[in-house]
Write the structure tokens for this entry.
Amino acid sequence: MKIAIFGGSRGVGRQALEQALAQGHAVQALLRHPETFDFDHPHLAVIAGDVLRPEDAAATVAGADAVVCSLGSTADNPGDVVSRGTQNIITAMQAAGVKRLVVVSSIGVGDSKDQVPLAFKVLMKTVLKAAMEEKEKQEAAVRASGLDWVIVRPGGLTDGPYTGNYKFGLEKSIKAGQISRADVAEFVLNQLTDDTFLHQAPSIS
């Protein structure tokens, strides 16, 4: 499978990139700063560009069988990069006829608000308010896309090792506990070929 990955330079996206290659997939990754990317692989195609430029999103999606979107806000990115970038990805997929989209969101977004602890709810209304609003816009765009989408909502992300030991599903009893980015990446990649959660937003913790 050829997988287009957005947000592959760090976090869950980076873990998904490395795991996909280890599984034998080909990966096309859009990177704003490819000169600082410290990973190479014969089946990795790095595309220099910006997801906020529609033509760069289209170039990354071209020829792909599926897309992983793990966008996040950074200090040198506009505050609306998640929502605008995701819309550019969706538009590119629609134009190219690529259907499968797996998006990394967060527990606390949409109907999962009550799955986070009280302290995090306070943060969602203060320092994380803008970031959570971006995720809300992102999820809304994905739901309206007409694509074969899955929205993955992880709990508190850590840089811990892969464990394979995590809970996931649609149950509201799944709380936003800590989970390694490596574990989330495995689950994300599984959604590329598993229809269990098609057009749904499972939590993982």
Notes: Strands lie at 2-6, 26-31, 44-48, 66-69, 100-104, 148-154, 156-158, 168-169, 178-180, 203-204. The chain has a mean pLDDT of 92. The chain is about 35% helix and 20% strand.
